User: What shape does this take?
Amino acid sequence: MSTPPSALVNRFERLAAERGETLAVWSRHEKKRLSFAALAQRSHELGRALEGFLAELSCALPSPSASDGTCFAGRCPVGLAVGNRIDFMAAFLALRRDAWPVVLMDSAADPATTHSLCRQLGLAAYVAPQSSRPASSEPTVAEGGEASPSSADSSFLVQSLAGTDLVWVRQRHAEPISWPGGVEVVKLTSGSTGAVRAVCFDERALLVGVQQIAGGMGIRAGDRVLIAIPLSHSYGFDNGPLSLFALGTPLVLESSFYPRQLVATLAATQATVLPLVPPLVRAMAAISWPQDLGLRLVISAGGHLATEDAAAFLAASGRPVHNFYGSTETGGIAFERAPNDPSATGAVGHPLPGVEVAFDGDRSVRIRSAANRLGFGGETTPVSAWVRPGDLGTLRADGRLVLVGRSASMLDVGGRSLSTVSVEDALRALAGVRDAAVVGLPAPGRGHRLVAFLVADPDPVDLKPLPPSMRPRAVHRVDALPYSGRGKLDRATLATWARTAEERP
Assistant: This one.
């Protein structure tokens, strides 16, 4: 059965032919540097290692059906949980070359969590590092032999990929779910406030999205991007592997979030672009920086960046931080090209080229772009041309987008509507407060009661400068707030902390 060619693979293979031995990816923690030609060769090697497994998987699938969308020309989505390694790129290219839709999965999750996600999404198989395989009392055999079940979960079989340190993990009895027609890459939402959702794209939308990002950010062919954020996350994938495949932008991979290690990697590799999340911006502002770096563009996305954190980073590194706003469902939305402009304060930048921003009556942000998702795995709701990322905002007269909160994070405090973001900003502005998060607990007759968690100096925090409606009814000091690898506050964990604190005698 014929399969459609992959536009991303075709683009990368043209780049490999043109650039040959030019550096494509440098992974310091793996002590490997691969050229474009070598990465293309590595992807073919992985394709051969996967060939038998994929053929077996294809034979086990039901006949293609245009009505239920459970498979595509004999191909179903395959998970990729490889982490920030060169083989993430090589395995992605190998799977897409054979037209298998790829689900970008978090390699840091434990096997039980990954298996639960596979059941939720109906994934028949995924690829992972050997080091992440579940413990088994039986030996795992090489390619072509009988796969051994995991003693931790006998519904999954684990088998080594010959010539690699990766494994093929197969679900014995996967229950397929419906997928939108044409899906080729699946990104997973963070699930920080609810269940993980599978956001589906075709490669056309991804190509449009990366071109919008590169054009808006001014990323050039000669740049070198250091990626420490997970490649499986939308932000990391778009600024990393997707940029490499589509634009030929070389990558530097880093597995550590330790600020001094990141600066050492910048110095050793002369990377020019550094995507970060707000907690990393804050941490890297607290260390000394060398003066001889090639770094020219620092980006922050994935959450709110406090003005004082951006100022501290500029003072420490000599480089401004550019706000970048996007969502898993849309890719990039807005970017601030002039962060030192006083009018940029409080905004997330101008919409990227090709991105149209509008607002509902309640100020909910709406996005229309050719980079928008096709739909969601397992859902049959018709897809609108407009996507609502869940934020509230407005456009200033100068065209900059300002976010004022999350539609799901609006609180009713004594009859007044407040966003958690506005309260957190006010708390961070208080003397001695380094970071803050708030939760609204039900308060009969008053809507919500504010509970705050502060990372602060030992001295008492004076709340009197806050308007009465913004003063938390309970304040808890913590050493650190729960941030995900995407730089987002884990509000589900915060809510648990708040309820637990309330239940204490």
Summary: DSSP finds twelve helices and 27 strands in the chain. Confidence is low (pLDDT under 50) at residues 63-68, 135-147. Residues 36-60 form the longest helix (25 residues).
